[in-house]
Each structure stands twice: as C-alpha cells, then as structure tokens.
Specification:
The chain is mainly alpha-helical. Helices cover about 50% and strands about 10% of the residues. The longest helix has 24 residues.
C-alpha cells in the first residue's frame, strides 16, 4: 500500500495482521512443552557426547567409539525445535533466508515502513542481495553455502510481503537500477488508495464482533493449511480456464499498446491473477475440493483489474511511464558521454536498441527533453541542393548537474 504520512497506515496494518501474530503466539504456546522436551533431550545427548569425546582424547576405546557414534546418530535424528516464526519485519536478506528455511519454505515480511528496501539495497552489506526475494516469489530453489555455517536448501520457497510505504520510498526504489533491472519492483501488487486527510472523523464505529470473529477464524484456517507439509495441486475448471485464456489474449493486446509503460510489471500480471484465484479458492472451498470454479476466476480477474489500475497510477505517479523512461534513457546516455553538442543521428546511434529502431523515433523524446529545458534543438539551415543537414542537440550545462530527471 502506498500512502502519505498521516493516512493511518500503521493502524490499518495492525488491524489486518493482528490475528497472524496471534496465531504465531498460540501455535508456540501449544508446542511449548514439546519444544522444552526436545531441548532437554538434545542437551542430555550433547553432554554425553562431550563426555565420551573427552575420554577418547588420550586413548582409543572401540566400545566407547561405538557408543559415541550411536549417540551422535541419535542426536542427528532429533532435529532442534525452536519457537515458530512465520513473520518478520526488519531483517537482512541472509537472515530472511534462514527464517524461510526454518519455516519449511513458507514465510512473510510485514512492515509499515520502507526500511526493508534499504536493507535489500545493501545498507549493511554494501551490496544489494535480492536473490531470496526474487526466488521466494517465483518458487525457485534456494541453496546457500557459507563458511562456518550449515548449508541451507529450500526446494520450494514461498515468500510473501505486506508493506505500507510512503510515495517517496516508492520513488527511491523505482529509480534504483538494480531493483528495477532485476525485476524486483515488478513482483509487487500496488494499492494507492485516495487520501482521506481532511475527511477523517475522530470517532469511528468498531468492527462488528461477528465480522471480527469470522476474520480470525479464516486467518487461523488458512494458517493451518499453510503449515501442512502435504502439497496439493489445484486445477482450473474448463470454464475457468476458458475465461482466463480469453483475458490473457486481451491482456497481450494491452501489452503492445497502453501497457508498454509498465511492461515489466504487466508481463507478470496474468500470473498474479492466477495466484489470486488460488488464494480465493483456498479461503472458500471445502476440504479436498481442488478444482477452481469459474466464479472464483471471475472474482480474481476483478481484483486483478484493481491492481492493474493502481500499478498504472503508481508507475505514472513516479514518472516511470514509457515517455519518461525514454527520456531518462537518452539523458543517461548524454550524461555518460558528457557531451555538450551532438548530432541527432549520432545520438540515435548511441541510444539505438531498446526504445528506438529508427532515427525519427527519437524525436518525440528530444522534444520532451527540450520542453523541460534539458536540451535545445537547433534546426539546420535550409539548402537548395544536396541532402539537408542534420539537426543539432545542444545540452544545457546546468541540467548536467542534476542527479536524475
């Protein structure tokens, strides 16, 4: 969720997630005795192993060696139990990987601030580490081997994130070339609700008890399903498959038209709609019902359209529509070459590829930059004979001092 300060993001997030944390607390309370027994048994075995190892330091004893081997085998067969963690807020990518591994591959990050993006970008390590976020979203296996630590292998990670941030944070992350270039920004679903400042009321009606109870019951039900190690595959009914197939074709046409400005996000959009359909189905279906009906798919598409509209707004709000992307691309090339004047044809060759296939395609971008004062375009003098001279692009030296456009 993207909202300015004072929009009560924290209180809304607290109401939404309180039963997630309650479930974590209740889960650990119900397993407290089991965790204590596990700890005691492991400590007893570790003491016995340490005692035998000390006795074997000075002399060899085959009987003791066999006993030591048996104790070590017993210890390996009793995995360490710790209080469960299902959620985190402020954690490094390395710590997050360990938390996912200890939670059987399923984990969430819930935060009312944007500091997690600073950590991703390398606030403490000096280097961006996005692998756990990228792989956790698409379910690619995570293998980590570090000196002095046990290796971690997560075959099917499932990482979720619920974040509420300010528009300034969104601006920072969307202008981060590493996060944008590797597709991290395109993996989030955006919600930019209209501001309520100026229309807020001091006293609000509480959530009805029956609604609150139903919400808690649903959250607990979903958490129990998520903690199960048994994997089940849901499928689309023929009608649901036909509906999403038609919508996919409609969306493909959108991608080569209005959707070009958010192509990185929009290319993952149909996959997001399918995920939403799966979640809706799990929240409402009877146990063992693995076929997603067309009504659920229709609702998923409606929710998906909400996120599509808000993504378009978020991208345009932060100046990431296609025209601005092109302008930033051209300006970046000019700054990198540190030129003061350049022919349009030479500039086209410098920028040829992703955005521009022909020389004339760069002209609207030059007009945009000229209109904002970054460059001046000097038209060539007309000549009655020969090929007309190329126009000249003159760069504003003061604009060169700016960090970004």
């Amino acid at each position: 969720m993207i909202a300015s300060p004072g929009e009560r993001k924290s209180s809304v997030m607290k109401d939404m997630t309180k039963y997630l944390y309650d479930y974590e607390h209740d889960f650990n309370e119900s397993h407290a005795e089991e965790i204590r027994a596990n700890k005691q048994k492991r400590e007893d075995l570790e003491r016995q192993i340490a005692g035998l190892q000390k006795k074997l330091e000075n002399k060899r004893n085959p009987q003791m060696e066999n006993e030591l081997h048996e104790l070590e085998t017993q210890l390996e067969q009793i995995p360490e139990m710790k209080p469960a963690r299902f959620f985190a807020d402020d954690c490094s990518s390395e710590a997050l990987t360990s938390l996912i591994a200890s939670s059987h591959g399923i984990f969430s990050v819930i935060s009312t601030e944007g500091g997690i993006f600073d950590i991703m970008a390398g606030r403490y390590s000096g280097k961006a580490n996005l692998d756990v976020w990228l792989k956790g979203h698409c379910g690619d296996a995570i293998r980590v081997d570090r000196m002095g630590r046990e290796p971690e292998y997560i075959p099917h990670p499932a990482l979720s994130a619920i974040l509420s941030i300010q528009p300034s944070v969104l601006d920072e992350i969307m202008s981060n070339t590493t996060m944008n270039g590797r597709g991290l920004i395109a993996r989030f679903l955006y919600s930019t609700p209209p501001s309520r400042i100026g229309t807020r009321v001091f006293r609000t009606n509480p959530i009805p008890p029956e609604v609150d109870a139903a919400y808690k019951n649903l959250i607990y039900q979903l958490m129990v399903q998520g903690s199960s190690e048994a994997v089940q595959t849901v499928v689309l009914s023929p009608e649901a498959e036909a509906l999403i197939s038609d919508y996919f074709e409609e969306h493909e046409r959108f991608l080569i038209g209005e959707g070009q400005g958010i192509a990185d996000w929009a290319c993952k959009y149909i996959g997001s709609v399918l995920r939403i359909a799966g979640l809706l189905h799990l929240a409402n279906c009877e146990k063992g019902q693995l076929e997603i009906p067309v009504t659920v798919m229709r609702n998923a598409i409606s929710i998906g359209k909400y996120f599509l509209a808000h993504a378009m707004y978020a991208y345009s709000m932060m100046g990431t529509d296609l025209s601005i992307q092109k302008a930033r691309f051209v300006w970046g090339r000019l700054k990198k070459k540190n030129v003061r004047t350049i022919k349009r044809s030479d500039l086209f060759q410098m920028c040829r590829g992703k955005f521009f296939k022909k020389t004339e395609e760069i002209q609207p971008t030059l007009d945009l930059l000229a209109g904002d004062g970054y460059i001046r375009i000097e038209e060539p003098e007309r000549s009655s004979v020969g090929r007309p001279a190329d126009m000249l692009v003159v760069i504003n030296p003061e604009a060169m001092k700016l960090e970004r456009i």
